[in-house]
Specification:
The chain is mainly alpha-helical. The chain is built from ten helices and no strands. It has a domain of 108 residues. The chain is rod-shaped, with a radius of gyration of 27 Å.
């Protein structure tokens, strides 16, 4: 439990920094790890002894590097695509609110006012309540209640003619799509790479950086520079993956800009 609390505190501390500062913190940790390993190994084993195994070590290192680079590249693409998809879902949800608000113009004044007020409250509840719980993929009870009130407003609509019937059916379809978009948004906030994948990425990165310790370059400065570049590259990509994986928290997160614009267009303050 104590380890978990410390881990969460470190993550929260890094997320409180600007993105570039957080990235530099992670990069610094990996670079220090890489340089420390070289200093320790060199203090115990001479470069000439390490050079004897260069052929085998080089072959193994090349293959491990290729496998790990493919894994990193695939993961970056995967989290970026998921990030973009969830962002698109949140934008579509906002557009459904705007369309329902506009389509309600065909109903009677009393029905129209009730529907529009319910839609406004739903949109504002997402901004003020639910967006704060999205990092855990949890629905907010206020937003769930607001959506139910939108449904109730449509249940109570009095259909006067065929024109209203057509628009009512279209509005119900849109309302179902709005509900589906909300569910997808909530699921997106809950999804992540998972512990197993993160274990593979982090341990793989540590092994790749650690492997370079056992090359016997004559120049220690060159050796440390090469190890630092490799460690910094891996650390930066891992931090990028983490930033994109946590879609509703941290400095690289999805913001409800589309919904804010919709609320403003309805004459309300977010």
């Amino acid at each position: 439990m104590m380890r978990y609390i410390m881990h969460m505190n470190i993550i929260q501390l890094i997320e409180s920094f600007p993105w570039l500062v957080g990235a530099l913190c992670i990069v610094s940790i990996f670079v220090i790890f890489a340089i420390s390993g070289i200093l320790i190994i060199r203090s115990r084993i001479s470069p000439k002894k390490l050079q004897v195994h260069h052929d085998v070590a080089g072959f193994v290192f090349t293959n491990l590097g290729v496998l790990y680079s493919v894994l990193l590249g695939f993961t970056v693409v995967n989290v970026q695509q998921r990030f973009d998809k969830i962002k698109e879902i949140s934008q579509v949800e906002a557009s459904y609110v705007a369309e329902l608000y506009r389509n309600s113009a065909v109903f009677s004044e009393s029905d129209r006012l009730v529907i529009r007020e319910a839609l406004k409250k739903y949109a504002k509840s997402i901004l003020n309540d639910e967006w704060n719980t999205m990092s855990n993929g949890l629905p907010h009870p206020n937003t769930s209640e607001a959506l139910q009130n939108v449904w109730q407003a449509y249940y109570n609509v009095n259909i006067a003619d065929g024109k209203q019937t057509v628009w009512y059916q279209e509005s119900i379809n849109k309302l179902n799509q709005l509900m589906s978009a909300r569910i997808s948004r909530l699921q997106g906030g809950e999804e992540s790479l998972g512990t197993e994948m993160w274990l593979l990425l982090v341990v793989g990165g540590i092994l790749i950086v650690g492997f370079i310790w056992f090359f016997g370059l004559e120049s220690m400065a060159t050796h440390m520079l090469m190890a630092s570049i490799l460690a910094a590259s891996i650390a930066f990509l891992l931090f990028l993956i983490y930033s994109l994986d946590t879609v509703f928290s941290g400095n690289v997160s999805i913001e409800p800009e589309a919904l804010k614009r919709v609320v403003l267009s309805l004459g309300e303050q977010p």
